[in-house]
């Protein structure tokens, strides 16, 4: 939707009006047939149509282009009233600068910054409202350190608040201790499994060494038996030699 033509001071050229909403162009785009539209208006139109609403020529979103520079300059120079005119703002700005003014306008309706407050207030009156807002917060005057809402003054009890805080801290500490305990148990279980696995590997290696040693002993005994046999044969040969 465009800018309400009633807000403008003086005559507005017909070429600067949106061909769909008939208000002054806002964020304008131009079709190849040179008809101009507000971006929101033409995009909404092309959802259900595929032609220009003025001359019915076929157009597509990809064919839309920014407004000619001279038309854009004419548009930006138009003078209009602030949208907060009904609230008392008498500012008249160029279209080029109206958005900047309205973002900072003292007559703009803005929400209260206190959480929970739904009041809409003029920017110029915001400080006065914040001073009396029932949702404003402040630090407890009795020194407990809590931030309280003005509406809770009569219900606030320092001892009860501190007791609640203490219980919360106690619960949080218990949770952290339990978490640390579970983490330590998990680590111990992991280390225990690792040690059992290592022990099994070492046990297998020991058994393998025992098996190797057993084979070596068997080989040594075989060698010793062969050596005795060989010695006996030599002694027998020596006796036969002497007899001869």
UniProtKB/TrEMBL annotation:
Highest rank taxon of the organism: Eukaryota
Chain ranges of the TRAF-type domain: 101-144
Gene3D superfamilies tied to this protein: Zinc/RING finger domain, C3HC4 (zinc finger) (3.30.40.10)
GO molecular function: ligase activity; zinc ion binding
Keyword line: Coiled coil, Ligase, Metal-binding, Zinc, Zinc-finger
Positions in coiled-coil regions: 192-243
A GO BP entry: regulation of canonical NF-kappaB signal transduction
Alphabetical list of InterPro entries matching this protein: Znf_RING, Znf_RING/FYVE/PHD, Znf_RING_CS, Znf_TRAF
Transmembrane segments: none
Zinc finger (TRAF-type): 101-144
Keyword Hydrolase part of the UniProt annotation: no
Domain RING-type as annotated: residue spans: 18-56
UniProt protein name: RNF41 ligase
Organism the protein comes from: Vireo altiloquus (Black-whiskered vireo)
């Amino acid at each position: 939707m465009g800018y309400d033509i009633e807000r403008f001071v003086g005559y507005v050229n017909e070429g600067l009006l949106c061909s769909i909403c008939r208000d002054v162009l806002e964020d304008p785009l131009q079709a190849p047939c040179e008809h101009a539209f507000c971006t929101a208006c033409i995009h909404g139109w092309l959802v259900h149509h595929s032609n220009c609403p003025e001359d019915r020529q076929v157009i597509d979103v990809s064919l839309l282009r920014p407004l000619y520079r001279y038309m854009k300059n004419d548009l930006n120079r138009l003078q209009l009233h602030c949208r907060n005119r009904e609230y008392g703002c008498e500012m008249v700005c160029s279209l080029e600068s109206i958005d900047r003014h309205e973002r900072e306008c003292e007559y703009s309706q803005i929400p209260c910054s206190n959480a929970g407050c739904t009041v809409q207030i003029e920017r110029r009156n915001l400080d006065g409202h914040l001073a009396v807002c029932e949702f404003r917060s402040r630090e407890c005057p009795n020194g407990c350190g809590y931030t309280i809402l003005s509406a809770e003054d009569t219900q606030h009890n320092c001892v009860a608040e501190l007791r609640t805080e203490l219980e919360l801290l106690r619960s949080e500490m218990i949770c952290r201790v339990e978490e640390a305990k579970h983490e330590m148990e998990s680590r111990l279980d992991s280390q225990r499994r690792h040690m059992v696995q290592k022990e099994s590997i070492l046990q297998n290696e020991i058994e393998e060494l025992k098996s190797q040693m057993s084979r070596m002993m068997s080989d040594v005994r075989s060698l010793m038996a062969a050596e005795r046999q060989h010695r006996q044969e030599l002694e027998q040969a020596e006796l036969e030699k002497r007899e001869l």
